[in-house]
Each structure stands twice: as structure tokens, then as C-alpha cells.
Amino acid sequence: MDNRRNDPNLNRALAEREQQAQDGQRRSRVDNAVIVRGPSQTESSPTPPTEPAPIPQPATSSSGRQCWICFATDEADDILAWIQPCNCRGTTKWVHHTCLQIWIDEKLKEDRERTVISCPQCRTEYLIYYPNSNIIVRALDKMDLLIYKACPFIIGCYVVGAVYWTALSYGAVTFLHVGDEEAKEIMGQVHPLLMLVTLPLVPGATVVLGMLKWEESLLEVLRTISYYVPLTRIFLPNRLINESGASTERQISDGMSCTRVFAGAILLPVAAKICGDALFSETFESPLLRSMYGGLLFIGVKGLFTMYHKQQTYKRLSQRRILNFNEENRIFIAGAESHGNATQ
């Protein structure tokens, strides 16, 4: 036995076996520690392969309910009450009771006389229950609805009355301005009811006169006559012939400006009074006749100048040409503009 203990080969084999047993125990402890602690706490341990993370999906409830007004589901809000107020199917048949109440209130604000509220998808009429109210509340509701209906009518009457009295005042002031003492005598002799009817027509008449574009119609007639009667082209406005041999057409009317029409209506009586007193003071003793003929003369002269300006503008636009872009034409345009500025 002692010889075996002293045998070096045997001792070396036993030591190697003990060392292998200790190494196996350490590896077993390390493996167990890796399993318990996980890969996040062991830097040297190999990480096992993992599956790809799933794509996140929107939250949906098990019942598939989703409010078509606020788009919330059971998982997003599990406090509000759900109802099925119509014949819609699928997830759109569900709606929060509070959301639908707010939506109905908005619809009733748009039309207070509306009594039927329907689903915007399936057009099913909602079954809405209102508790019974006492007679005082019903009377107040009817009174409130009556006032709501009468308000537009009241505002309309107020606006019409304001326009009428403004027109009446303007007509009276204008009539006294152009008629002087004769106008006062006429207003004192005529029945007041007749004055209340006729005087508001004065501003309307001046506005209508300002809206009439008689000079444009007359200019078109004169162009037509001069086109078919060559001898009249010497003294009448005529149509120009373009390069294709056809008559050049240009827009005659410049449109209608409300501010210009009303400004002309206001200034017309003043211009009529000035022209009448300056040109017909010795011809007519009546201030009304002088103002009437002065106004007609003013309108006629103004129309002639308007026709002349439109005809010259028509000629200028008919002779307009688009030039090629080159240095020679640029110099020509620059010279023409400088010459035009110099003549002005």
C-alpha cells in the first residue's frame, strides 16, 4: 500500500483525475449560473439565436367595438357607455352615447327646427327620447322658437326702413337743391303721401342712369353702320380689319363698378345744377327745367367723350403686336416707351 502511495505515476494520474473532476464541477457551476442570470450578465457566454420581434399592431378590443365619432375602442376608453342606434353593421354600428349626444347637439344648432336626426351612413332615423316637460317649459320653448323665426323678418324690416328713409331724405335734399324756391312751393302743394312715394325714387333713378351704358350700344351701332356703308367711315367710328381680313373684335365694356355707379349717382344732381345754371339761366326761368336740361347735356357730353376714348382704345388694342425677342426689337420698344414718356 505504501509502495502505491509513493509511486509517482499513480500520484500523477490521481492528481490529473482530481483536476478533471474540479474542472467539470466549475464548468457545471458556470453553466448553471449562465442559465440563472441570463445572457445580459455574462459577457463571455454565447447568446442563443432569437426570433425577430413581431410588428406592433393597433390596439383592438375583443368585441371589435369602435366609436365612429371619436374612433376610440374598448381598450382606449372602457368608461363611456356604448349603444347601437342604427342599422349599420360591423364596427361602425357602435358609438359612444356621449359622443352621439354631442353630435346631435351640433346638428340641432345648425337647424333648430329640425326634428329628425338620422345616421349619416345608413340614413336610419335615431330613436330619441325626451322626458316630459311642464306647461311652462313648453310655452317658453314655443316662444323661443317664435322669436328665432321672427328675428330675420325684424332685421329685414329694419334694413328696408333704414334704406327707405335714407332714400327719402336724399330725394328731398336733391329736389330742394336743384329746384330752389320752386321745389319748396311744389312740396307744399303736393299731398304728403305722394311725396313719400315719389321722393325715394330720386336716388334710384340716378343709380339707374349711372348703370345705363348707352354710349357702348351707340358705339357698336355706329361701327356697324360704318362697316356696311363705306362713305360713313370718314366721320363715324369704324371697325378695323386684322391681318386675316376679318373684323377685329375687342371688348367694349369695362364692366361695372359699384363705387363708380354710386359716386356718379351722387354727383349727377350737382353736375346738372351747375350745367343748368351756367348754360340755361337765360333760356329757362324754372330752376327745375334748367337742372333737367343741364343734366341731359352733361350726360350727353360725358357719353361722347366716353365713346371717343373707347374708340381710340379699340384702335390701339387692334394695332397691338407681339414682337420677336431680339436686340433690335428691344431697342425699338425702349425708344417707343421713352418717346411716349416724353410726349406725356
TrEMBL record:
CDD domains: RING_CH-C4HC3_MARCH5 (cd16701). It holds the Pfam family RINGv. It is found in: Membrane. Signal peptide: none annotated. Keywords: Membrane, Metal-binding, Transmembrane, Transmembrane helix, Zinc, Zinc-finger. The chain crosses the membrane at residues 146-173, 193-212. Residues 14-30 have a biased composition (Basic and acidic residues). The keyword Nucleotide-binding does not apply. Its main location: membrane. SUPFAM superfamilies: RING/U-box. Residues 1-62 are annotated as: Disordered. GO terms for cellular component: membrane. It comes from the Eukaryota. Residues 46-57 have a biased composition (Pro residues). One of its GO terms (molecular function) is zinc ion binding. InterPro entries: Znf_RING-CH, Znf_RING/FYVE/PHD. It is a multi-pass membrane protein. Residues 59-129 form the RING-CH-type domain. This is E3 ubiquitin-protein ligase MARCHF5.
